[in-house]
Amino acid sequence: MSIVDDVRDRVVGATRSLFSHGPQPLEHTLDHRGDPGLLGPDSVSWRVIGDASVFVGGVRALLIQTAHPEVVAGVGDHSAYRDDPLGRLTRTSFYVTETTFGAMPEVERSAEIVRRVHRSVRGVSERGRPYSAADPELAAWVHNVLTDSFLTAYQHFGPARLSPDEADRFVLEQTRIGALLGADPMPETAAELSAWITEHPDLDRSAAQRESIEFLSSPPLAVPVRAGYALVHQAAVSTLPDRIADLIGLSPCPGAHRVGEMSVGALRWALGSSPAWHVALVRTGAPIPDGLFRQQLPG
Q: Is residue 201 a part of any domain in this protein?
């Protein structure tokens, strides 16, 4: 084995370890040969969420979601993220992966698991407003921020920018996933989506937000992984809209965006594109692009 292969394999191993704290997605996806799932191999979503920039998008989404006091109260009151952060990360990744790349039985199973959990997530935020994870508007905040963050991360750190039409297609495709959890409203263009988030009237500061931001800034990870996470975190911060950045009290370090470009490029070099994208292409019988994949297939 060459030194280059050894470095790549170490990065793959460290990354996989972050997402190994629970059930793994698409373990039996090849049992559903020919099933295109919810989005299909010609979708923009497979390309965007299959890229290494998705790591930045995921962190960005978690940061922005804290700007809504009722949403972050639900996370603080009902999530075990403080005691089991990697378990929560694995469960979130499972849902995103299966709804994006899974066959329809896998999509429906993942959505039902989340709907069942959400039925018990209820309470009152510190500003006295009741919340329910099943509320269409709160579900929309979580879904829309995730969509916008994946798109923004890809446009900043992906291998090539999407055209305006492709960006709008991605947003429209993602509304099919949001509909699984009853999210409403869901803007259908990239510009409308960005404006809906940055101009949202219900955003405010909160103690739960400060606690979440502090945790996300320095999570309890192994030292080598923590160093890589810090680069991804700063890359995410460098893409925050001004209003959101002010609300959650974050600003990027000098050069954060450029470092983010290099860091995501290094991840793309080491990891290749998502093995979930690869196995979904195999399941559907679609052509496999040369040079994109280097990890072992799941399942």
A: yes
User: Is the CB of residue 48 less than 8 Å from the CB of residue 187?
Assistant: no
Is residue 298 included in any domain, yes or no? no
Tokens, residue 66: 């804290």
Residues 211 and 126: their CA atoms lie apart, in Å, by: 13
The candidate with the shortest Cα–Cα distance to 198, out of 206, 190, 208, is 190
The structure tokens 């629970």 sit at 22
Residue-number span of the structural domain to which 31 is assigned: 3-284
CA nearest to 97, candidates 250, 235, 277: 277
pTM strictly above 0.90: yes
The segments of the chain whose pLDDT lies below 70 read 1-22, 80-90, 298-299
Helix (H), strand (E) at residue 130: strand 130-132
Identify which of 294, 284, 277 has the alpha carbon closest to the alpha carbon of residue 44: 277
HSE at residue 85, side-chain half, CA atoms within 13 A, is: 13
Segment 187-242, tens digit of pLDDT: 999 999 999 999 999 999 999 999 999 989 988 888 878 888 899 999 999 999 99
What is the C-alpha separation between 213 and 232, in angstroms, rounded?
Answer: 15
Please tell me the distance from the alpha carbon of residue 177 to that of residue 181, in angstroms, as a whole number: 8
- Whether 202 is covered by a domain: the verdict is yes
Place of tokens 């979930």: 276
| DSSP state letters, 160-198 | SPPPHHHHHHHHHHHHHHHHHTT-----SSHHHHHHHHH
Counting the structural domains of the chain, the total is 1
Torsion of CA 142, 159, 89, 212, to 10 degrees: -60
The H or E element containing residue 122 is strand 122-124
* DSSP label at residue 252: P
SS3 293: strand
